[in-house]
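User: Phosphate acyltransferase, Paenibacillus flagellatus:
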Amino acid sequence: MRIAIDAMGGDHAPDATVEGALLAAKEWSDVDIVLVGDEERIRALMPAGAKPANVSVRHASDVIAADDEPVKAVRRKKDASMVVAGRLIREGEADAMISAGNTGALMTTALLVVGRIDGIERPALAPMLPTMDGSGVLALDLGANMDATPEQLLQYAIMGSIYRNKVHGLPKPRVGLLNVGTEAMKGNELTKAAYPLLEQAPIHFVGNVESRDVLHGNCDVLVCDGFVGNIMLKAMEGTVGAIFSALKTEFTRSFMSKLAAAVLKPGLSAFKKKMDYGEHGAAPLLGIDGLVLKSHGSSDANAIKNAVRQARIALANRLVEAISTETSRKREG
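Assistant: Predicted structure for Phosphate acyltransferase:
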């Protein structure tokens, strides 16, 4: 399997992306990694003898910046690292791509360069959210599309269920619909119309889920539109950040509190790791006719390595083919 990495995308690129790619290449010899970007800068980060045989470099002379307008950037910057990585998938030179760059531009690259699976109306950004039991919940869509139709939520549910089965090995993933209450007729017009579609779908639908229960792991796949989902995601990130900031202030307030911090540090470190996005690596763009993964903009080397692990599992279990087959079956039915 061949995985292209946008070496120039992300807050810590290319240093973190190259380091993460090298770690992954050493860990999994069955993966060929193509680092796409400024060849001179990339090779400078790989001292003589440090490049594994399963790592290569594809030069790309341009970069899509975080503040670039997505569609214009993808159309005009034909030799940007992200766009070149997308072309590698389209032309059969790579099976997957990973980028920590501009989310909107990656979505545009996926749509305009790689292309959608036939029958999928809109791809969905599907990151893993942490849960208290450590198993996580796949949430989609969390920002690729601000609006959605009931039929699109149905597609999100089916794709999410397939992903958790193929990548995480869950035989019967529990699918929930994000809502303001658990009763079947609660919500706005979108969720009311989507509910019966999900009930009839070939998935294990467990009904409506309130946002306060998400961290308790009462479902394996959480379905919502991108507007609501992104607000929930940012609220969670802000809350976790505020909690750890407040704890740091309290634990450094006095000598006694510092002693208490020393005692509690192992438990707090474990909890922080459980809440860390980097442990999951990347969010797939489900519905694209090729495996496209979005890493967090501030990804470090470990997050990039985990993204490669995630891509490797998805490719081994033929995720894209499974979604395409299910979509075809639904159209024919």
